[in-house]
Design brief:
The protein contains eight helices and three strands, in the order H-H-H-H-H-E-E-E-H-H-H. The protein is mostly helical and 200 residues long. Bound molecules: manganese (III) ion. The site of manganese (III) ion has 7 residues, from helix 1.
Length: 200
Amino acid sequence: MAFQLPSLPYSHDALEPHIDTRTMEIHHGKHHAGYTSKLNAAIAATELEGKSIEEILSSGTLSAGIRNNGGGFYNHCMFWEVMAPNAGGNPTGDLATAIDAAFGSLDGFKEAFSNAAATRFGSGWAWLCVKDGKLSVCSTANQDNPIMKGVACEGTPIMGIDVWEHAYYLNYQNRRPDYINAFFNVVNWEKVAANFANAI
Ligand code: MN3
């Protein structure tokens, strides 16, 4: 069973004005679709065909094609889900408690996450990860992610932000920090909390 491009869980214009419609159309319909089809081509007739994306990405040394396109497939699947219209605000429950424990406050978390996203040179992602119930922030280059072996992150990713220029350039041009600030207005904390619960 080949990997399928997931449908967006909301319309292309649902995240306006924070993430613009045209960016969503191209990002999901072209970029994510491309990673999906190239991943399928890269694993076809190999021992990785039929495995879950998590099994593939954590399996060890990956070819460039599988690393880039498998990472791209996985990362964007998470990205669409950790955003939602009429979202943002504050996390609650166990996730809020863990954020306060790790970063002092929600503002402390936002500062650490924003800094990781803003200082990732070139293309990549920033992540919120959990290991043994404890949260941390890291960033990765290209389409790497924390479940790949040898990546300098601790634990399982539960939220990620794409800081490739294709994620923001149409609306924000070179102003990556403005895009990062806007992202917090569309964070789907309920989904992040569910990811947290599954990971601990
Ligand atoms: Mn992207």
